[in-house]
Amino acid sequence: MSDVGVDESLLKSVAVQVATEAAALVKEAWEGMAGGREVAVGTKSGDTDVVTAVDHESERLVRSRLAALRPGEPVLGEEGGGAAGDGVTWVVDPIDGTVNFLYGLPWFAVSVAAQVGGESVAGAVVEPASGRVWSAARGQGAFLDGRRLSVSSPSRLELTLVGTGFAYSPSRRMRQSQFAASLLGRVRDIRRNGAASLDLCAVAAGWLDAYVEHGLNRWDWAAGALIAAEAGAEVQLAGTAPDLGQDATYAAAPSIAEPLRKVLADCGAAEV
């Protein structure tokens, strides 16, 4: 990977700025919905895989701001697509947790990351409802509203709180539910919050001890995985942990990362 001349601190600042601006747009729409505003809703892979007009508005804003602040750098977005370039590529999820957003649940976020050679070097995850700002730059630590983050250190698996998520495909959801049922008896408990970027941030903050999910897209983890790693988590991305499945994303506190990984494999992670 060639990243000579990349200023991770500057890229982080841009990510924070742009994600914060988009989060303000999303928050205004979310509050408007609570007051009766109607928002157009469509579907993608199936009836449960929704996209709203606000997702598109948020991504258009992010693309516009990045074009002004970082002209010529390509953008890969969940709604608008795109492809990686030779230098910095911006990876955008305009609303991660769209179903939560649509239902009024406050657990959703705007995620913006800068990648070079497919590796995240800076990123921000901003929560519209709370205003919390998660951020990281490669080699510089991870932060929540300016406070440095550090992962938890559970002493054993029985005290480990694990986050996960489920796919939109009914057949895969069935396999994931069987996997989760097998895991439940081996750990403290399981959480399913509905926004991958924020689950990864939760690992960074020690709010979760670990997180595993299959089938994520690059925009789901681009910022959050960097934040988790910079807070000290052991992170495995799709294709790097075949014992957990070819499309598994895994982040865990080092104290339990290896034994939990073995338990996940025993519970059938690779078959999900």
UniProtKB/TrEMBL annotation:
Extract the GO molecular function terms from the UniProt entry: hydrolase activity
Q: Which cofactor does it need?
A: Mg(2+)
Q: What keywords is this UniProt entry annotated with?
A: Hydrolase, Magnesium, Metal-binding
Which catalytic reaction applies to this protein?
A: a myo-inositol phosphate + H2O = myo-inositol + phosphate
The reply to whether Metal-binding figures as a keyword in the UniProt entry is: yes
Identify the EC number(s).
Answer: 3.1.3.25
The signal peptide annotation in the UniProt record is: none
The record's Pfam families line, in alphabetical order, gives: Inositol_P
Which enzyme type, at the first EC level? hydrolase
Superkingdom of origin? Bacteria
The entry sums up its family as follows: Belongs to the inositol monophosphatase superfamily.
Q: Name it.
A: Inositol-1-monophosphatase
Task: Give the species this sequence originates from.
Answer: Amycolatopsis melonis
